[in-house]
Amino acid sequence: MLKTRVITAILLVTGLLVTVFLASKQVWALLTLAISLLAVSEWANLIRLSRVQSFGYIALAILVGVLLMLPFPILITYQNLAVLVLLMLSALFWIFVAPIWLHQRKSCQNTFMMSLVGILLITATWLALVGLREINPWLLLAVLGTVSLADSAAYFAGKRFGRNKLAPNISPGKTWEGVLGALIAVTVYGGFLCFYQQLNLWLIPALWLVVGFSIMGDLLESLMKRQAGLKDSGQLLPGHGGVLDRIDGFVPTLPMVLLFIYGLQFSGLNVHG
After folding, report:
1. How many domains does the chain have?
2. What is the pLDDT of residues 3-36, one digit of tens each?
3. Which pTM does this prediction carry?
4. What's phi and psi for 131, nearest 5 deg?
């Protein structure tokens, strides 16, 4: 299993690097939209939509993506506003709704509401993938690297030192020791970035927040899978499950990072030390 996970991870990273640096803006947007549609399909499965409902749900997601991508000048103002609103709604969900949801561990039976939540969160993630790369491909990779590093550090630290369960009724394998391992790893990572890129040391606590929200995304997907009676969100990626299994930590973090950067640009604050 570990060998399969490693091989799949290497292929995914290789494909990511090639497309991030070589693909055009339009190709990157279409490629990430396609991946997002796979995630939408898996979300439909998690909330138990019928086959017909799933087709309609994916068609709605395609329509939203197309409307946000159309290059007509008359639409640009509305598209920019829609992007900002979606990013803000996503952030509000993860700050206020998700913690209560995880604490209560309740199953939401309102299919319409769960469908809207899925479209919102996955579309915001897609927009963040496009927006962060447009700002700087290295910025996107840095955020993706932070979440991936935290996830790997949490796994190995939890496996080696894990004693105290983080959320035993949601994801029994996660431990507080794993969380500590993730925080230590990103602290070292952030220290290197601050030193070599002359960035403000406030980056480090910002990375801690990224870790916290990435864990929240992981836990929320685990809760939904448990309530749906599924081990994985899909079987597309050998050793990793489905697309949602692979991006659950990115769903909260990428939109929040992009929204934060937009806020910095609007305020004119300097992130360099």
Report:
1. 1
2. 677 777 788 889 999 999 999 999 999 999 999 9
3. 0.94
4. -70, -45
